[in-house]
Amino acid sequence: MAEQVKAHITGTVWKIEVKIGDTVEEDDDLIILESMKMEMPVSAPFDGVVVEILVSEGDAVEEDQVLIVLEES
Q: I need a surface site. Which of 31, 52, 58, 59 has the fewest CB within 10 A?
C-alpha cells in the first residue's frame, strides 16, 4: 500500500536524501526542507520503498504538499 509523505512546513526543498527504488527505514530522513534559515528534515513514517519523488531540489513547497510516495515493505 502506497502512502504520501507531505511537507510539515512551508519552505524550500534544500536536499533530497533518497532516490526512486531506495529502501528506507522508519525515521530515515527523506528530504531536508529549509525555512527561515533552518533545516527541517522530513522523515519516513514507516519502513518502505520510495516509489515516486514529486519535488526537486530548490522547489518552493507549501505545508501539506505531497513530496514523496512510499510503499510499505
A: 58
Direct distance between the N- and C-terminal alpha carbons of the chain, in angstroms, rounded to an integer: 9
Q: What is the CATH number of domain 2-72?
A: 2.40.50.100
Amino acid residing at 5? V
**Where does residue 58 rank: exposed (0-12), middle (13-18), buried (19+ CB within 10 A)?**
exposed
Q: What is the pLDDT of residues 22-73, one digit of tens each?
A: 999 999 999 999 999 999 999 999 999 999 999 999 999 999 999 999 999 8
**Per-residue DSSP letter, 71:** E
Which residues make beta-bridge pairs with 40?
33
Q: Where are the domains of the chain?
A: 2-72
Three-state secondary-structure class, residue 45:
coil
